[in-house]
Amino acid sequence: MTGLASRFFASALIYAVLGMTLGLVMGMTEDHAQMPTHAHMLVVGWVSFALFGFFYHLFPAAAKSRLAAAHFWLAEASLLIMLAGLVQIFMGRTEAGQPFAAAGSTGLLASMILFAIVAWPSVRRA
Ligand code: HEM
Ligand code: HEM
């Protein structure tokens, strides 16, 4: 695995470790307030980013486009921003967290649309 594929997969590994650590802390403290943060860190950060890594590994031509690079940076930045919002919202700092959650989730959706545009031709060819 090289290039964009390995960068997506490496970030997925980091989110897996961070997300499971948060889950463990939630379990040990019996405070599940950050459950949505934990859930999205793992289902988006670990599962979805790992899938992107595998996709770009299987379709290296798609990984070379500028749109694919834009997908990577927008997805990575948006997830960080969305998580920064979720942490604050579920700490009780709703007003501080909302702009981050709104910007991050909008960016994440935009990044998914970019990915659909990048991936669609490969899927049709396959
Ligand atoms: C060390 C491993 C893990 C621990 C200790 C852990 C712990 C937890 C805890 C304490 C909750 C809150 C449950 C509740 O309040 O109802 C939770 C929810 C959740 N976890 Fe984990 N988790 C782990 C791994 C994972 C992984 C690997 C994923 C996904 C790939 C995941 C996805 C979720 C989701 C989606 C929820 C929300 C479930 C719901 O909506 O009811 N977790 N986890
Ligand atoms: C634009 C990005 C997204 C937004 C704005 C969003 C928003 C939300 C909201 C508002 C909830 C309900 C939380 C609650 O009731 O406390 C939720 C739950 C959930 N979402 Fe997302 N989501 C996004 C992306 C995703 C993606 C890509 C996945 C899967 C790959 C996912 C999986 C889940 C799961 C498993 C739950 C249930 C766990 C929980 O309640 O925290 N979400 N999401």
TrEMBL record:
Keywords: Membrane, Transmembrane, Transmembrane helix
Domain of life: Bacteria
Lineage: Bacteria, Pseudomonadati, Pseudomonadota, Alphaproteobacteria, Hyphomicrobiales
Transmembrane segments: 7-27, 39-59, 71-91, 97-120
Database matches in InterPro entries: Cyt_c_oxase-like_su1_sf (IPR036927)
Keyword Transmembrane attached: yes
Protein name per UniProt: Cytochrome C and Quinol oxidase polypeptide I
Xref: Gene3D superfamilies: Cytochrome c oxidase-like, subunit I domain
